Amino acid sequence: MSPPNPPRWADALLRLLCTPHLLEEVQGDLYERFQADYLAFGQKEASRRYSLNVIGFVRLRFGFGQAGWSKALRTRTHSNNQTPYPAMFNNYFKIALRNLWRNRTTSVVSILGLSVGLASGLVIFLLVGYLFSFNRYHAKSERIYWVVTDILNDKPQPTDVTPRPVGQVLRDEYPFVENAVRLNNVFGALVGVPDGKGGMSKKFEESRNICFTEPEYFNVFDSEWAAGDQRAALSAPNTVVLSKEYATRYFGTDQAIGKTLRLDNKTDLTVTGIIENPPSNTQLRYDVLISYSTLPGLWNDPGMMQTWGEPITMCWVALKEGVDVARLDQTLAEITRKHYNAKGAGMYKMRTIPLHEMFHMPGYGPAPRPILYALIVVGVFLVIAACVNFINLSTAQAVRRSKEVGVRKTMGSSRAQLIGQFMLETAMLCGAAFIMALLLTQLNLPMLNGALWMLRADISVLDLLNTHAVWWFGSLVMLVILLAGLYPSAVLARFNPVAALKGKPGTGRNGRFSVRKSLVVVQFFITQFHHWRHRDVGAGEAFENGRSRI
Amino acid sequence: MKRTYLGEFEELVLLTVAILKEKAYGVAIADELQDQTGRSANISAVHAALHRLEEKGMLASHLGEATAERGGRRKRLFVVTALGGATLSEIKEMRNRLWNAIGPDTLIATI
């Protein structure tokens, strides 16, 4: 029989409760007691007593910082009597809590006001962060270019496609091209699931998220592969790769390799691969990827792959690292001259669009940079307005603290110390406000995501946890604390102790008044600005346009 | 004369440490206390008292050997310091003085 062991959760709790350097002896005593109890009362009772004893050791967490240290070590640690800074800090902390509690109504109003402002700012920043993240998650996103053709008639007509052989030629003949992939969108298709008896058990009308593409797709773009052979998956005709979501939609399971789909009631496709669902911040969302080599059979046109005719297929190029895009542009002009007669070469002009910037280009993406920058400005102003409001509330409160400041100054507190103390209070309030703001934000995001359903937006407060966001969110927190705390604490620390103790504080009353007045003016201005901006943006329309281009 | 204050429980613990001589550590003290006084003492209370007494300088401690039933953990062994001993005997003397002042018959008569 293995020796009996006390409950594991109690052990974990003990590690949490007990001062670390006392853990060994305490745990040893408890084990010994447990063994004795086990022999006397059995496992159950012994475990119960063990847990109770563990809880009793909470007391060793507090006030026993020095227990168990040798005397020599103790004197060594405490010989140089430095300023007992932690002690002062504890005092500030305690006084801060008492003050917040004494003026609890004002505290609650301040926190609520600040958190509503911060939440509005956060929603905007999260939205902008999301819109700036589009298409950038591909490892090669900075090197991927989309080749499009302008047809130069009397009036130039932009298209988003190229003549069919271009991708192949770029891939095969130009070494500075790392890879290229051709892709045909399908606007409207009927996907059926055969029932094995010649009929169809289910049918789905699909549009937009179906495409024909080459195996190179998975080399140029990042997709997380769930099942199947990534390299071979789309090489044969009549094969298809599904996203997990769509595999489940068609077959009721994502274990769909080898199963059959029927396209437009005539062509059977075999599932050769399953990918994870594409993220929401992509403009190339494809859930059903059919092999490109299916096309000639489907359209009954065996020679189509070599035909230099009208632009007809999308083409994406990944350049080798360090290659300038100008070289690709030159090459495209070369190719046009080589493969078309003079009339054709004069009519088709191919150019490139960078993938990582595409989302912000008018006509190719819904979020032009100026609008995003304007949104950031609005967010910053909202946060500033909230801070100004907070400053006004806390300076108005300052007079109440004048006696305390007087006493502290008389006892030798420096201005810097006082500012530090009041900054700590502000930091605590701001911390509470930020927690509230995060809650409010998370509660509001479903509405925002709902409004952005076209993009399948999935913005969440958890987006703040990625490295980039942690950086700006951290600076936002610091900035708000400084902005909201510096002025009120400076005002408080300025009180003349004699006047303050006599009960008529504020020698600089006029000065303070004017600052407060001007802050109110700033606030008013921001409200007006905000109003004007919102009337002007009209971003929703732009979103819909951009999405439908792809 | 100025003397560090000793609580009643602290005094009992200090005395128990003295009884156990070199074998005084948490569980042993708790057990001995129970045997001697009949009151069951919580181990954590004993530990807290021991550490408080050590801070007051009445006890000294060092880590002892590990045993199997402790899961290989060492125990902290306590001994009474000179200050501790002096304090104990002072308390006793003071009690005796008080008892003597009461006089032999007073209390027995009331019981």
UniProtKB/TrEMBL annotation, chain A:
Subcellular location: Cell membrane
Any Pfam family hit: MacB_PCD
Any one Gene Ontology molecular-function term assigned to this protein's record: transmembrane transporter activity
Domain MacB-like periplasmic core: 107-333
Membrane topology: Multi-pass membrane protein
InterPro entries to which the protein is assigned, alphabetical: ABC3_permease_C, MacB_PCD, Macrolide_Exporter_MacB, Permease_put_prefix
Alphabetically ordered keywords of this record: Cell membrane, Membrane, Transmembrane, Transmembrane helix
Protein's name according to its UniProt entry: ABC-type antimicrobial peptide transport system permease subunit
Keyword Signal: no
Limits of the ABC3 transporter permease C-terminal domain: 377-497
KW Membrane (keyword) present: yes
A GO cellular-component term linked to this record: plasma membrane
From TrEMBL, chain B:
Coiled coil feature spans: none
Domain of life: Bacteria
Full protein name: PadR family transcriptional regulator
Pfam family, any one: PadR
Gene3D superfamilies (alphabetical): Winged helix-like DNA-binding domain superfamily/Winged helix DNA-binding domain
SUPFAM superfamilies: Winged helix' DNA-binding domain
Ranges where the Transcription regulator PadR N-terminal domain occurs: 19-89
Listed InterPro entries: Tscrpt_reg_PadR_N (IPR005149), WH-like_DNA-bd_sf (IPR036388), WH_DNA-bd_sf (IPR036390)
Record organism: Dyadobacter jiangsuensis
